[in-house]
Amino acid sequence: MRSYLSKMVSSTRLPPREERETAIEAAGYNVFNLDAEAVYIDLLTDSGTGTMSDEQWAALFRGDEAYAGSSSFSAFEDAVESVMGFEHVVPAHQGRGAENVLYGTLFEDGDVVPNNTHFDTTRAHVANAGANPVDCPVEDAMDPDAPGDFKGNLDLDCVRALADEHGAESIPAIVLTITNNSAAGQPVSVENTREASALAEELDVPLVVDACRFAENAHFVKQREAEFANASVAEIAREQLSYADAVVMSAKKDGITNIGGFVAVRDPDLFEQVKQRAILYEGFTTYGGMAGRDLEALAVGLREAVEDEYVTQRVGQTQALGDALDAAGVPIYQPVGGHAVYLDAEKMVPEVPASQFPGQALVVELYRQGGVRAVELGSFAFPGTDRPELVRLALPRRTYHREHIDHVVETAAAVLETADSVPGYEIVAEPPNEELRHFSAELKPV
Ligand SMILES: *Cc1c(COP(=O)(O)O)cnc(C)c1O
Description:
It comes from Halodesulfurarchaeum formicicum. By secondary structure, the chain is α/β, with parallel strands linked by helices. It folds into two domains: 161 residues, Aspartate Aminotransferase, domain 1, CATH 3.90.1150.10; 252 residues, 3-Layer(aba) Sandwich (Aspartate Aminotransferase, domain 2), CATH 3.40.640. Helix content is 41%, strand content 13%. Strands 2-8-7-6-5 form a five-stranded mixed sheet, sandwiched between helices. It has a three-stranded antiparallel sheet with strand order 9-12-11.
């Protein structure tokens, strides 16, 4: 069932093979360097790439651009309170702006910050505040074949071990990322959230939830955690977030907007501190880097994100893509996460040696053979780590249709057919900062 229809459309085309070959070569075999027009189906990210509803577009026109105390801020504040249960909120231009505001306030030199898995901008902001970001995923989180309902969970023993090793006083907060984006979009259970909250209380520190995909996470909880089988996604989201002392949010995910983010906190003193930093880096506390109209669209988007029909179809489309790929024999990370399907490049292009970026080789091939833009999240994006060679196909919200999904599956199946002839790659130019190399480095086939 599909509970929405298209009222405005955007044209897209599959450029002919020859054009794609020229474009990818000119892009240095890095899909970040491609013009979006050269792409047929863009699965680079689900961040800010979704489709707004007519209600959201209508809300844009209500935008009140008053510098201070706009009615758009009030609409946004009401939505955050009603959907997420937080009274104190400061907008930010996007998720990383919110991270800078909260983490710059909470963390200092020498701190150790546990997170089920740090998203890349999160890691950077924790480090920027002088603290040491430590990932505490559950054991099977990065295993593409391990079964598990909540492979996104936080390993509490890992946090306890950090407290023993460094002293509880060096841990300023526990951070829980829902869903766990860097671990294949796997969900976190409410049970795990309660345990994390209890541990945070024991350590006398706040529990921070990175809530980017809180609605998708709630959908998984409904499916997989018996206690919530009859609850609505909206009720589950409220329950899960009720254990958080603060949230950071990128509205470009489950806010269903093209830009925006925020920090919400419970403690009035922390709120005062956060506001001071927000003014410095984002803007006055009632707009924080967002236009009034964007706050309006976000207020509507947040409410839509927790509608059962919407989120069932959203996560269902991702699952359908995963099922179809699996049926076509394409190796994927299982179970499928909320926002993306991850291809297992090691298995898919086994002839490409580990030193020649098998994930990137697969990304290039998906573009060459079908005009599909994916992103590598293996040894090219994360040099020097032992992460599996995964390629992410992230689905923009409410954007692509079944025909597009079919095309992606056909493309992946075609790549699988020709896997023997897929070349490896070597880097020919890269930026000084290795951590950011996958955004701009240029490669060539070996
Ligand atoms: C996207 C994301 C962020 C950062 O948000 P931006 O809006 O891209 O700055 C932080 N944490 C997680 C888990 C994310 O997925």
